[in-house]
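Incident log, support desk, overnight shift.

02:14 A customer reports that sequence design results differ from what the structure should imply. Their input is reproduced verbatim below. On-call engineer (initials T.W.) acknowledged and began investigating.
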């Protein structure tokens, strides 16, 4: 049976507060029966508190509504994010006074408070689930949707995958993209050719490893798979291979399954706010012009269905290319807008596929609009200049 995804459109029929997204969040929380589910629960609200001068993350007005609903239901809420984002969060409007609950670094101020979960995957042997996640009894996963340089798209899955792990595991998840070999030095012994390969990349994504001459290192985050470097590389020396990119997405799905294993069934809800979407993650510490029209707010018990629905709605919109930073290089104009933004191997749907394979939910969903647009009848007479 398809999972229900409750949806609030960013569009309004009329200029009325009840038709705007914070009001639609209230309706979604009612549909998810949040108040009835949190009595005496210690509730973590996992969100991204951004960094430095970023301002596109979830506005406190939304977070405060979630906090209040949890308090109304007799739960004990707290907000959590990784330590380098919670440090200074008050400068971006996230404080105890504003949100109405404490804000904690999810794995402690030094990233040393975690529970280790054994689960070998490529170069990762165990997953350090953040202490404040595992100690909580109920999860509200509240994600700001945006592009992401490693996986094309950051939403509810990515919010947990990276944001609920201690720093060491976050680093290992990124490093796992280098597990499958892509550089074969015996096919390119010539230093001059290696220099030309590096120079061929407009994104400076492929560089010679300074500590290990003869080895080329691919910064996957910067690579949009344009293929220019392949023209400079001798045959067989370099692969730009989907497996390296997909490794990060699969690692994210495994990470989320370890996170969710610490909650009993039915003790989590997931929310996506798809507004002010930027090309890269909120942890970059700044906000660009929005690169997509707002797509609205989504809520579900099923994290996979939520992501699928969010991607499908965003997929009906078009990239606002004129809002991209001037250095951005779009060379691929097929498929999902996030794919066009970050390249074909960073297909945003891939993570939902891995998450479904991990048993985290279903990609089949029923979209329930919590406040459908009302048809507005215009006056029958034509416009006449006054
Ligand atoms: S595929 Fe394009 S972006 Fe990626 S490393 Fe090669 S030249 Fe750079």
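02:41 Re-run completed on a clean worker. Output:
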């Amino acid at each position: 049976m398809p999972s229900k995804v409750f949806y609030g459109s960013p569009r309004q029929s009329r200029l009325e507060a009840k038709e705007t997204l914070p009001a639609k969040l209230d309706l979604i929380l009612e549909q998810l029966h949040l108040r009835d589910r949190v009595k005496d629960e210690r509730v973590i609200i996992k969100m991204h508190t951004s960094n430095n001068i970023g301002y596109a993350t979830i506005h406190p007005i939304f977070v405060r509504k979630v906090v209040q609903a949890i308090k109304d239901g007799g739960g004990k809420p707290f907000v959590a994010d990784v330590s380098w984002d919670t440090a200074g969060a008050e400068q971006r409007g996230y404080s105890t006074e504003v949100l109405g609950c404490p804000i904690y670094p999810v794995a402690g101020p030094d990233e040393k408070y975690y529970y280790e979960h054994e689960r070998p995957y490529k170069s990762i042997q165990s997953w350090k689930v953040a202490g404040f996640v595992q100690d909580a009894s109920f999860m509200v996963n509240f994600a700001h949707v945006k592009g992401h340089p490693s996986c094309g798209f950051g939403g509810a899955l990515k919010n947990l995958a990276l944001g609920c792990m201690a720093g060491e595991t976050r680093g290992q998840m990124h490093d796992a993209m280098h597990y499958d070999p892509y550089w074969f030095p015996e096919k390119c012994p010539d230093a001059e050719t290696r220099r030309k390969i590096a120079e061929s990349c407009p994104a400076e994504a492929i560089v010679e490893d300074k500590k290990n001459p003869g080895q080329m290192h691919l910064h996957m985050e910067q690579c949009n798979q344009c293929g220019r470097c392949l023209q400079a590389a001798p045959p067989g020396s370099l692969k730009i291979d989907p497996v390296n990119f997909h490794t990060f997405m699969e690692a994210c799905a495994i990470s989320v399954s370890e996170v969710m294993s610490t909650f009993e069934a039915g003790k989590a809800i997931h929310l996506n706010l798809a507004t002010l979407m930027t090309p890269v993650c909120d942890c970059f510490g700044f906000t660009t012009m929005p690169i997509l029209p707002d797509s609205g707010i989504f809520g579900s018990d099923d994290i996979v269905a939520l992501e699928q629905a969010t991607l499908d709605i965003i997929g009906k919109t078009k990239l606002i290319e004129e809002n991209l930073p001037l250095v951005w290089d779009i060379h691929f104009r097929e498929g999902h807008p996030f794919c066009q933004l970050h390249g074909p191997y960073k297909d945003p749907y891939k993570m939902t596929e891995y998450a479904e394979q991990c048993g985290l939910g279903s990609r089949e969903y029923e979209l329930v609009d919590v406040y459908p647009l009302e048809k507005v009848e215009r006056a029958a007479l034509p416009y006449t200049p006054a």
